[in-house]
Amino acid sequence: MPLPYKINLIDHERWISSGYNRSFAWGLVRNASTKELGFWRVVRYNPNLDTEGGCYEFSLERTGSAIVSEEFSFLDSEINRSAALSEFVAKIENWEKNPNS
User: What is the average per-residue pLDDT within 23-30?
Assistant: First the structure.
């Protein structure tokens, strides 16, 4: 069954609903046809410090080097989170179309 978006961050909502628990700050990345592309994760984010940001990263392996990343600040701000996620998934989509660039 196809997924709803061109790029889908599996378990991202679980991370948010957990209160940004670090244990849930990662998941699979799948395209609309459910092909597994790699993993997303959040690094350098402390949910107890609302004055600092962090970084979304995409890699081919769960703990591998980041291929794509997007910095964010104040993740609890829905506007900032939406903007960072939009840029992040756009970068992954571009990588999927041009993996060697």
Answer: 96
CB 9 within 8 A of CB 89: yes
DSSP assignments along 23-68, one per residue? GGSEEEEEETT--EEEEEEEES--TT-TT--EEEEEESSTTS--SE
Per-residue pLDDT at 77 exceeds 70 = no
Mean pLDDT of the 70-96 span? 82
Short-list 100, 74, 68, CA closest to 87: 68
Residue 99's φ and ψ, nearest 5 degrees, are -65, -20
Does the pTM exceed 0.85? yes
Sole residue written with tokens 């410090």: 49
Task: Give residue for tokens 């591998």.
Answer: 64
